[in-house]
Amino acid sequence: MDKLIAGQVVTYQGDPFDIPAEEAVQVLPQAAILVRDGKVVSVGPRDTLRAKHPEATLIDHGSALILPGFIDAHAHYPQTAMIASWGKRLIDWLNTYTFPEEAKFADRAYADEIAGRYLDLLLANGTTTVTSFCTIHPGSVEALFEAAAQRNMRIVAGKTCMDRPETTPDFLRDTAKAAYDESKALIERWHGTGRATYAITPRFSPTSTPEQLDALGQLWSEYPTCLMQTHLSEQTDEIEWVKGLYPDARDYLDTYEHFGLVREGALFGHAIHLEPREIAHLQANDCSLIHCPTSNTFIGSGLFDMGARKAEALRVGLATDTGGGSSFSMLRTMAAAYEIGQLRHTALHPAQLLWLATRGSAEALRMEDRIGSIAAGMEADFAVIDLASTPAIAQRAITAETIWEEIFPTIMMGDDRAVIASYVMGERAAS
């Protein structure tokens, strides 16, 4: 059965960091999206499409904003239950909260519980695709892929690999061989199954031995259509730690580059404190950087330079980084990206923020042919946003003279209350 989903529809004509933002991102008033078999067939004026397709079921969201479903390009679903845990710096925080919580995922029932809870929290916040680290336990990966399949969500995930004895607790450590063998088995089972994509996942070079990174580089060469996700240059003391563990490396990126883990399809979370050589090699290899603004402020990591990275034509996605990030909401994440941009003297336009949370993240994941925009042939994943969801937002939005003035208060003050509905492959997700 065809559907017409109507509202104010956001469409993309280009990258708002390359051309004027309001040319690149356009909002079509009184528009509709024709959906058939989980895909977008066409987008246009509501009345025109209604007349042309009278048999279609009309779902009219009035003046609500219809966006591509948000894409969270870097997260840790096993940290769901410990989000907003008070901490000091990254390494202390990992040892105090993260590693003990991740140990619980040896219990498959616990992994299933958290995976379902996590994805339902995402859908309640308008997020329809996520890229997540799991734990060292293969069952934690199975749990997330199965929960996503039940909801028909597009998912990127992988077994987190960490085997260095001096930096990882013995209860949360695998080996180079286990990382290779277990990741390979998961790739064979899940990669390309339904809407699932496997990401080879060394946590970061300080928690892996050179032998493990070498094994994962070999695995990626055998399965080149997988993605690879890890962390890079999140904190300055982390960088010094890496230099001590890899004294022969030219810089942090080199600890991955040496083992074949720097190429297209690589997703580097944070990437705040980059050296010129690292930037040049990330550009040359068409890697993706994932900006995690609420995490970067919560853990005190630093200020990502969006203006510089986009000017260098790097792929940049946006992410919550839960539970280092302090919110499951991509609206809150966009607000934090704006605030960090202000501190970096780069005033991000609301059109750029929406683009980063959707099309930008899709490009970072190399999935822009499937998700991240509303256009013919794309998968019908949408977030429907109320632009007057609270009294505080409504009293500001009502004075707006342009659509962007109306949207911006929701970006800055919105949360799950602003999300009227999430659609996954054209079907409204249960609320």
From TrEMBL:
> Could you tell me which residue ranges the Amidohydrolase-related domain spans?
66-401
Q: What is the enzyme's class at the highest EC level? A: hydrolase
Provide the cofactor note recorded for this chain's UniProt entry.
Binds 1 zinc ion per subunit.
Protein's GO biological process: guanine catabolic process
Keywords, A to Z, come to:
Hydrolase, Metal-binding, Zinc
Q: Provide the catalytic activity annotation.
A: guanine + H2O + H(+) = xanthine + NH4(+)
The record's section on Gene3D superfamilies has: Metal-dependent hydrolases, Urease, subunit C, domain 1
**Cofactor list:** Zn(2+)
Record GO cellular component, one term: cytosol
EC numbers listed for it are 3.5.4.3
User: Record's family?
Assistant: Belongs to the metallo-dependent hydrolases superfamily. ATZ/TRZ family.
Q: What name goes with this protein? A: Guanine deaminase
**The species this protein was found in:** Celeribacter halophilus
